[in-house]
């Protein structure tokens, strides 16, 4: 007894549209037709559909199923590839869960970059924005340096964060001098921060980062940063 396309779809737990698609891409052989031109499916077609469904459940793409043929070795290699992909996906999911847990533990906001949740309260919105932009430009070592710096060095933050845009020169210089001392310590602990690892587009990346800083901080704070970097580099050159 032969089955119609609709009945075959019911038995295999699929749809008529899917069966037609499998025919079109060569996954399922066309059946013989009756005198009335109706398709007549047999047990091999049902078994093939169930096999395809099983492989799809394992995560195998249709293109890979089509290329399997009858070689057991090919099937084994495909399974190993799938297993490696699943392992990578699981590892990434675990990393994401750990990151989400950290954000929940510290009640962090959405603009807190990965790895900064524990120090988020000490970062102003401008600080968080600069860190997010910097993370896009730095390599992994540079990002790790940023995380450690944010956790270990907040000595000049209060004075810098509360500096008004119309601060006088003396106040700007005083805050810059304190920040320069912090910068020297940071450069000693993280030598790579003297010349941040910005990759092949270093020049344009520095320009982009500078533009972001000038838009995120007020004029007095921007001047503090400029002076602090000059003072830190001069002291390092003399030392």
TrEMBL record:
Keyword Calcium: no
CDD domains the record matches: HTH_MerR-like (cd00592)
Entry-linked Gene3D superfamilies: 1.10.1660.10
Signal sequence extent: none
GO molecular function, a single term: DNA-binding transcription factor activity
Keywords, sorted A to Z: DNA-binding
Pfam families on file: MerR_1 (PF13411)
Location of the HTH merR-type domain: 2-71
PANTHER family cross-referenced by the UniProt entry: HTH MERR-TYPE DOMAIN-CONTAINING PROTEIN (PTHR30204:SF93), REDOX-CYCLING DRUG-SENSING TRANSCRIPTIONAL ACTIVATOR SOXR (PTHR30204)
Official protein name in the record: MerR family transcriptional regulator
Organism: Brachybacterium ginsengisoli
